[in-house]
């Protein structure tokens, strides 16, 4: 039996953050597929036994369940001593970028991607335009920073990088972004992350087939 279980599904970039961290740390883990699109997370029994918030990912370890990707990344970085902040200043800087990620970088892009390609019904063009504009603004901020340094905090990857990497490795047909052309700083950073030992893409790392629904 694996030491860690991760409740996840391959289309979830937030779940990918946790799965990628486990892979990069060389953890003994196994995925537990969440049938999210069929409403598994809304079932009362699932919320009672797995996560009252009805969300994935959820990490099981030594009788405890951890939810929210930022919490899982923080827990694993402390447990393995990898990708962790080196001091208090770095700790606060990592937290700053992870909060930015959840509030802007991931949130707008992930919602845009869902309506762009995964939603059963095509997204409203006005809604898509709004979400893309907000995502573009957040991505421009990160792209500028990553033209000035190899990783978000400095010369080495931290859980801030793993957090922001949640959705960027999904195929272009799911979101329409050509990062090499539009965000070269982010594209170069992605190549540095790909070079980390243990890096694996979301559809290879988590259960569930790739699909696109609305395009």
Describe the structure.
By secondary structure, this protein is α+β, with helices and mostly antiparallel strands. The chain folds into two domains: 4-82, 3-Layer(aba) Sandwich (Glutaredoxin); 88-194, Glutathione S-transferase Yfyf (Class Pi), Chain A, domain 2 (Up-down Bundle), CATH 1.20.1050.10. The chain has ten helices and four strands. It has helices spanning 13-24, 44-49, 69-80, 88-118, 125-146, 159-164, 172-175, 179-182, 184-194, 202-205, and strands spanning 4-8, 29-33, 58-61, 64-67. It has a four-stranded mixed β-sheet, covered by helices on one side. A hairpin with a 2-residue loop joins strand 3 (58-61) and strand 4 (64-67). Helix 1 (13-24) packs parallel to helix 3 (69-80) and helix 5 (125-146) packs across helix 9. The longest helix has 31 residues, at 88-118. It is globular, with a radius of gyration of 17 Å. 36% of the residues are buried. The model has no long low-confidence stretch (mean pLDDT 93).
Compact overview of the structure:
The chain is of the alpha+beta class and 215 residues long. Helices cover 52% and strands 8% of the residues. The protein has ten helices and four strands; from the N terminus they run βαβαββαααααααα.
